[in-house]
Amino acid sequence: MIIWLLTGLCLLGSVRAVTAAGKGDSAMVLGVYGHPGPLWEQGLRLDECGVNAVFVHAGAVDSALLARARAEGCRVYAEFATLNGDYGDYVQRHPEAHPIDASGAPVARATWFMGACPTDPGFRNWRMEELERLLRQHDLDGVWMDYLHWHAQFEDAYPQFHKTCFNASCVDAFQQWAGVSVPEADAAARANWILAHAPRQWEDWRVAVLVDWARQVRAMVQRLRPGALVGNFHCAWRDEDLWGARRRCLGLDLEALRPYVDVFSPMPYHGRSGMPVDYVEEYVRYLGERLDIRTEPGQYPRLWPIVQAHDDPPVSADELAAVLRGGLAGRSTGVMMFTAASVAQDPAKLAAMRAVYRQAAVGGAAPRTP
């Protein structure tokens, strides 16, 4: 078990878990997303801010980050941008990995990223090689899958939905999985046939593709970093929201992913998605019940939401405090906020985060749903 030492109002917590990745640890996870450099540049220590976990993009992980974060009582988790084709400019350099929509054309990119075809063998091999390199180089406490969904953009008030992918590798894989024969034709005609004659099988197959990615990620983490956690950042929608769009369009079936995910980290970015502050707590309570999230020491899966601190649109310090508290509601045993830089540059937000985190740490055991 990790022993967290309290001195005055400051969390010190500098002892690292003696078990791999804190398995069996009952401490509340109080995290920041993003490199903690902006906080360090302010002369701050993470433990003095109440922070005991850092979630950082895989490309920003290095030995100096690991050493300093752990010296300040933090576990370190790497975000792995699973199906984001912008990393390494892969889709730009390999157009065969560009998803094909129902019109037979390369799908339009989202506002800030380009998805990749999940069945393209070259892309999958490249991503798994990148994951293996990350795990061999760094003694991480866990890996969080991100962009584990078919190409779409869901973090806006008006999401972008696309029906993909209808390239040769997807249609061939679908036929083999579903036991159906799609007539030979161009991509648009084959897409129309699938959506008219086998829409449910198509949706189920798309779920199975993502589950298989999660299975392979988990297997690699367990092989190279036994005991490290596998988490997943994902869309904060209920099963029924937008006529089931999370599963039907994004291909995300959280129950199907459950065997391969230790920690679910929904992204209820209230400001970005045009939702009220109260939605964060409502969704966290919903998901905890829906997935039968565990709160007992050593039991999984767990629920650690990520909430919005970033000013897009502006988020006040009071809002940040409210969504952090909402993220700790119900069966949640942790929370993090996006991003470290957003808090470091705003003294009021920094004070709000400190207050919520210190209160949560002093509160001890994870909260239970009434």
CATH class: Alpha Beta
Strand content: 5-15%
Q: Quick one: biggest sheet? A: 9 strands, parallel
Strand order of the largest sheet: 9-8-7-6-5-4-3-11-10
- Stated plainly, the CATH topology is called TIM Barrel
**Fraction of residues in helices?**
25-40%
Q: Based on the structure, what is the oligomeric state of the protein chains?
A: single chain
Distance from N terminus to C terminus (CA atoms, Å) equals 27 Å
Number of individual domains: 1
What do these coordinates show?
It contains 13 helices and 11 strands. Helix 4 packs parallel to helix 7 (199-224) and helix 11 (317-327) packs parallel to helix 13 (347-363). The longest helix has 26 residues, at 199-224. The chain has one domain (6-363): Glycosidases (TIM Barrel). It is globular. Helix 1 (37-41) links the parallel strand 3 and strand 4 (53-57). The chain has a 9-stranded parallel sheet with strand order 9-8-7-6-5-4-3-11-10. A two-stranded antiparallel sheet has the order 1-2. It is an alpha/beta fold and 370 residues long. It has helices spanning 37-41, 63-71, 90-93, 121-137, 168-178, 187-197, 199-224, 245-248, 254-257, 278-290, 317-327, 340-344, 347-363; strands at residues 6-7, 10-11, 29-33, 53-57, 75-81, 142-146, 229-235, 263-267, 302-303, 306-308, 334-338.
